[in-house]
Write a structure and sequence with these properties.
The complex is a heterodimer of chains A (114) and B (110).
Chain A lengths: L2 E5 L2 E4 L5 E8 L5 E7 L5 E9 L2 E4 L5 E7 L2 E6 L8 E8 L9 E2 L3 E5 L1
Chain B lengths: L3 E3 L4 E4 L4 E7 L7 E6 L5 E7 L3 E4 L2 E6 L4 E6 L8 E8 L6 E3 L3 E6 L1
Classes of the chains: A mainly beta (114), B mainly beta (110).
């Protein structure tokens, strides 16, 4: 069966510091991968998605970036965090082919920028 | 107009009650629809997929009305453990992305 991992689970970082969040998927190959952010009391906002190694689509312009160095690894980064970057960061995957579009989420990383 | 709209609630219902949530979507070309459940401070989890006119799974029934562009979720015989936020989700016609509604919060009371 497929599993998705995210780490760290929680993170407290000062403004201006760098960020690196990692997501890995097991049990599937060539998945579509997604990064979402959920601010406190708000809905899910799609940040990036990737359909393959090295392929990144950005949905929202901001000071975040994403990379996919391996088929089942997705990384979210920032060079300098802002207070507004605080939130719940969720990685999700779905099968890269086929008629089903369900996405499955990792456990998330709760980021607080101080 | 938001792409996917839901009443944020909260819906406060007693145990055993039947409760229904509605969700409207703006893109008539959307083909796939989902309900996710999100517990407090947890990730969303897929509850049901709706690819045709509806789907039923135990106490949960989802219905799709393409003409009016809305999806509903009916929960029968509510349990305390049903308390959560229910997210209405619509697949983009291009296929790669999901659009999430803001969620409807349900609180089931003893």
């Amino acid at each position: 069966s497929q599993t998705i991992h995210q780490w760290p689970a929680t993170l407290v970082q000062p403004v201006g510091s760098p960020l690196s969040l990692e997501c890995t998927v097991e049990g599937t190959s060539n998945p579509n991968l997604y990064w979402y952010r959920q601010a406190a009391g708000r809905g899910l906002q799609l940040l990036f998605y990737s359909v393959g190694i090295g392929q990144i689509s950005s949905e929202v312009p901001q000071n975040l970036s994403a990379s996919r160095p391996q088929d089942r690894q997705f990384i979210l980064s920032s060079k300098k965090l802002l207070l507004s970057d605080s939130g719940f960061y969720l990685c999700a995957w779905r099968r890269g082919s086929g008629a089903t579009y369900e996405q499955y989420f990792g456990p998330g990383t709760r980021l607080t920028v101080t | 107009r938001k792409e996917v709209e839901q009443d944020p609630g909260p819906f406060n219902v007693p145990e055993g009650a039947t409760v229904a949530f509605n969700c409207t979507y703006s893109n008539s070309a959307s083909q796939s629809f989902f309900w996710y459940r999100q517990d407090c401070r947890k990730e969303p989890k897929l509850l049901m997929s709706v690819y045709s006119s509806g789907n039923e799974d135990g106490r949960f029934t989802a219905q799709l009305n393409r003409a009016s562009q809305y999806i509903s979720l009916l929960i029968r015989d509510s349990k305390l453990s049903d308390s959560a936020t229910y997210l209405c989700v619509v697949n983009s016609p291009a296929g790669n992305m999901l659009t999430f509604g803001g969620g409807t919060r349900l609180m089931v009371k003893p």
